[in-house]
Amino acid sequence: MPLCFGEYVLFKGKNLYTLSEGKITNSFQGLLNNLEKLTYSSYICELIDICLQDEESNRFLFKEFITCLYLLNTDALDYEILIRSFELKLLKATGYGLNFDTCVFCMKKLSSTNYINLFYYGGVCEECPKEHGVYVSKGAYNALRFLNQTPMDKVYRLNVSREIKDEIYRVTSSIISLNYSKKPKSLEMLNYIKE
């Protein structure tokens, strides 16, 4: 059964594991009844699969993943903003976290900027070169900063326009595409259905 959070006892055989015992904590049935929620939950599962090696442990990312599933299972917040927050947490947990506090070149403190360097993972001040990155509005930069430092259960406080959501998606999807072995395909289905 997909999306079952629980405790499991597994035995490792020559080629695969055998499930010996299991106790389900939450089956997230609410996610299975809504195409948008199901697609977003499939997407975060796919991200985990892409960014971690088999049998690699990452407790921080697991906690963020479960939190995201619980929040997706409610109707309390904007799913798109929640997913962008998860993407930023995933990037941070796997060594590709963005720096929004100082310029990635000269280390000058940034209050805001309109450029994010995708190779050095952060904002660029007015004086430093604008290369290998994307221009964003100051609103999108500030929203990214907020999502990066705010726990996922608090992202409901952020209310942004469609344009800013698109800018945030452009930044996170670019970094994910550049740094992981393959590009997630789950969201393409949702975008296709929405059109």
Automatic annotation (TrEMBL):
<dbReference type="GO" id="GO:0006302">
    <property type="term" value="P:double-strand break repair"/>
</dbReference>
<dbReference type="InterPro" id="IPR003717">
    <property type="entry name" value="RecO"/>
</dbReference>
<dbReference type="GO" id="GO:0006310">
    <property type="term" value="P:DNA recombination"/>
</dbReference>
<protein>
    <submittedName>
        <fullName>DNA repair protein RecO</fullName>
    </submittedName>
</protein>
<dbReference type="InterPro" id="IPR037278">
    <property type="entry name" value="ARFGAP/RecO"/>
</dbReference>
<dbReference type="GO" id="GO:0043590">
    <property type="term" value="C:bacterial nucleoid"/>
</dbReference>
<dbReference type="Pfam" id="PF02565">
    <property type="entry name" value="RecO_C"/>
</dbReference>
<dbReference type="InterPro" id="IPR042242">
    <property type="entry name" value="RecO_C"/>
</dbReference>
